Each structure stands twice: as C-alpha cells, then as structure tokens.
Amino acid sequence: MRAVVTYQHGGLDQMIYEPAYRDPVPGPGDVILRVRACTLNYHDVFTRRGMPGIKIPMPLIMGIDVAGEVVETGPAREVFDNPQRQRTRRFIASLRQEAGRELGG
User: Fold this and answer.
1) Enclosing domain of residue 11
2) Closest CA to 97 of 54, 55, 51, 56
3) pLDDT score for 79
4) Cα–Cα distance between 60 and 82 in angstroms, integer?
5) What pLDDT is recorded for position 8?
6) How many domains, the chain?
C-alpha cells in the first residue's frame, strides 16, 4: 500500500511518501477503502502543524475527504456489493487508528 505518512508535527518535510506502508486491518464495524481520490484542506494543514491542546496519535495519513471503493469489511458490518463506490467526510475508525492509510491500486 502507498501512503504519505506524517510521523510528527511540523512542516511539509514531515509528510513522508511510503511506497510499501503496512496494510490496514478492519476492526468490528469498520470498512477498508481503496482510495481513488483524496483532498488535503486546512484541517489537514492544522493537523500537520499541530494545534495546542489537541493530541493526534501518530503516525497519521492526512486526507479527511476521500472517495473510493470498499474492498474489505470487518466483523459485524453489513455486506457491501464490491466494488461499491463510497464517499465519506471522515476516515473510518480503523483507518484512523491504523494511521488512516490508503490501499494502492
């Protein structure tokens, strides 16, 4: 899986391209998306820079707005017809916990 990973707060130099980042594992109620499009916006800039009083678990993959296809579901998740296009305003919990990674495709 490919991803741009932030390991610590800072400038653009903290966004590291990882061509072989580990694949996510879905937890109960989670889905894994093959990300086809992703935006970076001011939320991502503030997160990368760090905000006083707000702790973000690292490593983290930026991109709060994504579009893609469901490729895997965790236990206790309703079944999707694969590949079903999905659009979400927030990363799925397991993606955030696993550093919100993208599946390369």
Assistant:
1) 3-97
2) 56
3) 53
4) 27
5) 93
6) 1
pLDDT-flagged residues of the chain (< 70): 76-105
Is the separation of the CB atoms in 63 and 41 below 8 Å? no
Q: Is 102 a domain residue?
A: no
Locate 61 and state its tokens: 């993959």
Structure tokens at 95: 């993606």
CATH number at residue 39: 3.90.180.10
Query: Which residue spans within 1-105 are E strands per DSSP?
Result: 3-6, 15-18, 31-39, 60-61, 65-73, 85-88
Q: Is residue 105 part of a domain?
A: no
Residue of 5, 19, 18 whose CA lies nearest to 56: 5
Q: 91 near 39, Cβ under 8 Å?
A: no
- List CB contacts of 81: < 8 A, sequence separation 6 or more: none
**16 assigned to some structural domain:** yes
pLDDT in tens, 54-81: 888 899 888 778 888 888 888 865 555 5
pLDDT of residue 62: 81
